[in-house]
Every structure is written in structure tokens, then in C-alpha cells.
Amino acid sequence: MKADLNPGRTTRQPTFRELYTPKLVTVIREGYGLPQFQADLLAGLTVAIVALPLSMAIAIASGVSPDRGLYTAIIGGFLVSALGGSRFQIGGPAGAFIVLVAATVARHGVEGLILATMMSGAFLVAAGYLRLGTYVKFIPYPVTVGFTSGIAVIIFASQLSELFGLTLPGKEPGELIEKLIALGEAAGTVNPAAVGVAALTIGVILGLKRLRPTWPGMLIAVAAAALAAYAFGLPVETIGSRFGGIPRSLPLPSLPAFSLEQVQAVFPDAVAFTLLGAIESLLSAVVADGMTGRRHRSNCELVAQGFANMGSALFGGICVTGTIARTATNVRAGAHGPVSGMLHSGFLLLFMLIAAPLASYIPLAALAGVLAVVAWNMVEKTAFAALIRSSWGDAMVLLVTFALVVFRDLTEGIVVGFALGSVLFIDRMSKSIAVDTDVPMARDDVADDRNGRRTSYEPEKASDPDTVIYRISGAFFFGAATTVGTVLDRIADQRKSFVLDCSGVPFLDSTAANVLEGAVRKAKRAGVRFFITGASPGVRRMLFAQGVKPPHVRYKATIENALQQLRDERV
Fold it and tell me: Which among 121, 327, 392, 564 is least surrounded, fewest beta carbons within 10 Å?
């Protein structure tokens, strides 16, 4: 049994089987019948209708053919639902990965991308079994808002050429500033037909969202744009004209070609996929938990995401992660459990088998319009504004993360934002620790200590002028070590006995223990008797490890016990 943070409560550590049992198994054990299947069937169809145009649009924006987006949603989505630790998670290609995937394709080609996806899957499985999913929750909120908003800006910028039907003389630059310059130089090649198709798509999506929110706006908008382009013979690029359409079946699974040199080359990309995939999928699972009151298994979810990425790579797909928008759609559609996600993959496969030829008529400007709406929805506008107003620290973390993601690199933005957030947290925590003194004095002589706090007066402890009592309250760690150490430097000033009460210290690290070890050594040289009272077992273990142990220091349960021993020694 392990003590809980709440007094009087104990909690049992979950077993390996409990941690890694897929939610599919849990749902079946609870009892799964025809009513539950009907609910999942309708939800799966709803999500598939949303995922069909989105999967192709994300794949094209990522620099690969649209069929790879469908392979990702079919294979990866099925495995995420079948093996995952969330009841409602929907897996597939995500807009957040567009930047990373496109950069990987540009550097290493599609084969390098598939290898990086396979490696990322292995890393995610390892992270899940090492139980690292628990730590993803420690990423500061300003960092998640900053990188999500930054990704949205980059996604929108990447679709400008398709939205306006621009013709660029060479390959479109990857860096934002260079991209905008190149697009500006190509402004004279605007295709009015492409602009009209994109505007029609965006207008239908937004109009249906307002007037008929339950209708599949994205699919209807893409279908309307394709019909208009075909009926009026509009001179716009389509999936068929650029990619030759999409196949009507899944490819046979195959391992990506790799060598040691190629593994080393794509290693940084695989790590970036792993980091973003873990963050995105667990955030999506948290959103689903908030909508349903359920609780996901984070480490089981990471393992499922890992196997899903490896499965996707075997079939030529791209990165898989939990998708917030499709997961939320699944919940709102009344899904009962993971079967809806598995059925969503089945419906996508059915659509591809039956309607693949029709995909050739879809204008690329229409898919760009879909991604423009996705980018707008990704920006957490209310949260962004609230963080800007909240405090200078949160605003700094938010803006630095956002700027680095937009102008430098996604991974760099997350790492630097996390580091800044951690430093900000350490600074705040270091100011929260209190060192109070119970130095005996007359009632009318109560004074301020050097930290500006009023010292307390306790008459029963004022009988011994040679004893000083300090009380530490709060987490005592490296950030507060200097502050506390400065106070403890005074312990030998005209005192023969020193009592340090640690009953208000929930946590103490090695740096803090080292500070106390120095104070004990100083007290020993000065002939001062040193008592520590109220130390919890965890605090005492850390102090013992740093050499703060008898006979140089004596441990007592309470201050009264320490004072009583001092009185007994004088008798």
C-alpha cells in the first residue's frame, strides 16, 4: 500500500495488467451488446465522413500523396482504438504533424519518412512500457497553447499557394519568411477559379457549422467544390491531375529499406515525431476524459500509439496520433467505446474500395480550404489572450514557444518553452518557502525577521534563552536552498541549542539536505546541540543519505519532545 496525499487514505498501486489492458477489453468485460454496437456503428460512420477529406488534405499538405493519409487513418486508426487506453480516442494523420512530416520528406524522401515513423513507433512503445506517459502532463499549459497556435499559423501559410492557385517557379520554401516572400513574388499568377473553389469550400463549412452543426460540413463542402469544378470545367488542379487518383485497395505490408547511416540520419526526426505524438495523443485523451467523465490509461495509450505508427509505416502510411477534433466528434456522436474507432477505419476502407475513382475530381483548392478552417480552429484564441493577460511569466513562455515554432523549429519551441516554464515554476516555488523563528522574547517585543515575517510568540517555549527554534514550511529544494541556508548561518550566534522543525516540509531534495548537513557541521564546531523535529520518513531518508544523522543531530517527533530532552539533560 502507498500513502495517498489525502490523510487517512491509502491507495493500491495498479498492476502491470491493469495499466496495459486495452479499453476495448474493459468495455467488453462490462457487457457489450447490440445497443452498444448500434451506437458505435453510427459514431464510427460519422467520424469516417469527417476523416475522409481531412486525411487526404493532411497527407497532401505533408508532401505525400493522399492515399498515404488514408492508409494512416485505416491502419493506424484501427490499432489506436483496438489497443489504446482511451475509450474514445480516434487515431489518424494530424494537422500538428504537417510541418514535421513535410520537413522530413524534404530532407530524406518518403522512404526516410516511413523509416522515421517506424522508429517513432518503437520509441513510443518503449516510452509506454517505461511509464513515461505520466510525465507528459507536466508540460506547461502556455507551451501547449503556444505550439498549437504556432502550428496553426504554419499550416495556414503552407496552404496559401493552393488557396490562391499560385504558380511558383521552383520548389516552395520551407521557412515561413522565405515562403511568404516567394508567394508574394508569385502574386501575379493568382488563379481566380482556385480562389472561388477555396472560398466556396470555406463558406459551406462555416455555413453548415452555424445552420446545420450535425451535418458533415467538410465532406459536403469538398463534394460541392468537386461537383462545381467538374460541372463548370474550372481550370483547377485536382487529386487526379497531380497524383493520378488514389488506389482502390491497401498495399501489401513491407518493411522500409534502411541502413545504419539512414537510421542515424532520420533519428532526430523520429525523436520529434515521438515527442509530438505523445503530447498530442495524451492531450486528446484528456479532452475525451473531460467530455465523458472517464479516465484513460496514459501508458497503455502510448504503447498503442507506438504499434499504430509501426503498423502505419508497414503499409506506407505516415505518422499516427490521437486527433482532438475527430475524438471530440466521436464523443458527440454517441460512441460507447473503442469499437466506434475500429468501425471508423472500416468505413474509410470501404469508401476507398468503392469511391476511389471519385476522389480524382477533388480540387486541391478545396482541400486547402478544409485545412484553412482546421488551422483557424486549432488556434486557442481565448486561451492565448487569457495567458497574455495573466502574468508576465506565462506570457513570456507562450510568446517564446509560439515564435520559435513559427520561425525556427517545432521541437526547439517545445523544449525551450518547457525549460522556461520550469525555470518560472522553480522561481515561484522558491519564493513560497517560509522560515519562521520562535526566538524567545517578551510579548511586546514581537519583531519582524529578515524575510519580513512576524515571529510567533509561544510563552511555554520562552523559558530557555539559550535555545532557538526555527520552522521551515514548504517544499525545501535547490531553488530555496540559498534563502534557507542564509537563515541557518545564524544558528551558532549566542545559542547553545537549536531546534529545526520540518513538520511543514512535504519534500526535501539532495541540495536542501546538503545545506542542512553544512548547518549541522557548523553547529558541531560551535558546540551547539542540533535537533530536527517532525521530519517525515521520506525527508529523514534523504537527510540520512547526505550524512545528517545521529550522533551529530537528534531526531524528535515534535518540538515539545526536543525541549523536554533539553530540560532532562540539565537536571
Answer: 392
DSSP assignment letter at 10 = E
Q: Would you list the DSSP string of 42-69? A: HHHHHHHHHHHHHHHHHHHHTTS-HHHH
List of the chain residues with pLDDT < 70: 1-12, 137, 438-464, 490-495, 571
All structural domains of the chain, each given as residue ranges with its CATH number in brackets, are: 16-424 (no CATH), 434-570 (3.30.750.24)
Tally DSSP H helices, then E strands, for the chain: 24, 9
Buried/exposed code over 475-499 (b: 16+ C-beta within 10 A; e: otherwise): bbbebbbebbbebbeebbeebebbb
Smallest CA-to-CA distance from 320 within 118, 48, 138 is with 118
DSSP 175-216: SHHHHHHHHHHTGGG--HHHHHHHHHHHHHHHHHHHH-TTS-
Residue 227's alpha-carbon distances to 201, 223, 275, 405, 528, in angstroms, are: 11, 6, 40, 37, 90
Confirm if 325 and 88 have CB atoms less than 8 A apart.
Answer: no
Let me know: does 394 contact 387? Beta carbons within 8 Å: yes
pLDDT value at residue 464: 64
Which has the closest alpha carbon to 53: 252, 326, 262? 326
Cβ neighbors of 96 (< 8 A, separation 6 or more) are: 148, 151, 276, 280, 321, 378
Half-sphere exposure of 498 (CA within 13 A, CB side): 26
Q: List, for residues 167-177, the tens digit of each pLDDT value.
A: 888 777 777 88
Q: Which 3 state secondary structure label does DSSP give 3?
A: strand
Residues pairing with 476 in the sheet: 508
Other C-beta atoms lying within 10 Å of the C-beta of residue 267: 14
- In contact, 70 and 352? CB cutoff 8 Å: yes
Q: Is 16 helix (H, G, I), strand (E, B) or coil?
A: helix
Per DSSP, the three-state class of 525 is helix
